[in-house]
Amino acid sequence: MSVSSSIAGFLGVFALSLGLTGAVLRYARRRLLDVPNARSSHRVPTPRGGGLAIVLALLGGEVYWRLVVGEFAVGFAVLAGGVLVAAVGFWDDHGHLSARWRLLAHLAAAALAVASLPGDMPLRLGPVSLGSGAFADFIGVLVIAWMLNLFNFMDGIDGLAGLEVVSVGASATLLLLLSLPSGGALPVAPGLLAAATLGFLAWNWPPAKIFMGDVGSGFVGYLLGCEAIATAKTGTLGLAVWLILAGVFVVDASFTLVRRMTGGQRWYEAHRSHAYQHAARRLGGHAPVDHRVLAINLLWLLPMAGFVVWNPALELPLLILAYLPLLCLAIRLRAGQPEL
């Protein structure tokens, strides 16, 4: 596929998402209003479920790639799993679905994706090899399920989750392009997801007119997790690269969860103690947090991920180095601790 056709596809997906979010907003105002409570980070009732536009726009992009190239950009089985995740999220946005059924659906979608992904390179994290058999596939399922729930945990203030998807997707596309062998196929999937999310982000930027909802947060996290495992299995981008690019979310969500579990809190209940939520209260708004996260992603994590791409033997020490300031920031912001 030519560069011009790819750019046209990305722009089309962005425009489709932009328009569809407006349509979803009209529906959500009547059926999916998120009323603030003690655990919320917003103050006025706001429609949710806008992530449905991301799902539909990306599916539209897949139709375009199928017609122009003759194959799906993401892969049919991965898309099917994504639709399952989105459907469960859409159901949960309209009412409450038990955590057990949500988890089963997430694991089923992740297993479907891992079973269908091409490549036989062993999963590695630094010097640690997870092999390429059943155990590696099991780890792949856990990675995808964790990324899926990671974005659900971190979708708590205006613009943040959408910004992270655009940042990680665009950064991964750039790194794939820079490491592309002569005559290699242009990377499409992460850029396609970034374009679909960018159209939604125009409506979700502070002050948000609509929230992503579980339908969107689960879908984008699932696809990023699938991309991480897919590129690791084909040897195009190592798992450590994705862990670095998504470092803000990985460190905040993981550290907060561990601190709540070890602190005797009800870690499975909704809360407002993530580092980004503490930061939003300290800074007096959501946009300042978004700006700082974008700066961290572009000025720190993207260069560190680039170093890993061109120095794979150093990926574990570089991953640790990338995470150290993020961990210090989480501690300083009292992640996992109740509000003062």
- Report the end-to-end length measured between terminal Cα atoms: 55 Å
**Class per helix and strand makeup:** mainly alpha
Morphology call: globular
Tally of alpha and pi helices: 13
Helix content: 55-70%
Task: Report the average pLDDT across residues.
Answer: 92
Strand order of the largest sheet: 1-2
Can you walk through the features of this model?
It is a single chain. The protein has 340 residues and is mainly α. It has a domain at 3-237. Helices cover 69% and strands 2% of the residues. The chain contains 13 helices and four strands. It has a two-stranded antiparallel ribbon with strand order 1-2. The protein has a two-stranded antiparallel ribbon with strand order 3-4. A hairpin with a 2-residue loop joins strand 3 (124-125) and strand 4 (128-129). Helix 1 (3-31) runs antiparallel to helix 2 (51-68), helix 2 packs across helix 8 and helix 6 packs parallel to helix 8. The longest helix has 29 residues, at 3-31. The model has no long low-confidence stretch (mean pLDDT 92). InterPro entries: Glycosyl_transferase_4 (IPR000715). It is found in: Cell membrane.
SSE diagram, text form:
Layout: H1 3-31, E1 33-34, E2 46-47, H2 51-68, H3 76-94, H4 99-116, E3 124-125, E4 128-129, H5 134-154, H6 160-178, H7 189-204, H8 213-234, H9 239-245, H10 247-262, H11 275-283, H12 287-310, H13 315-332
Antiparallel strand pairs: 1-2, 3-4
Helix pairs in contact: 1-2, 1-7, 2-7, 2-8, 3-4, 3-8, 4-5, 4-8, 5-8, 5-10, 6-7, 6-8, 6-12, 7-8, 8-9, 9-12, 9-13, 10-13, 12-13
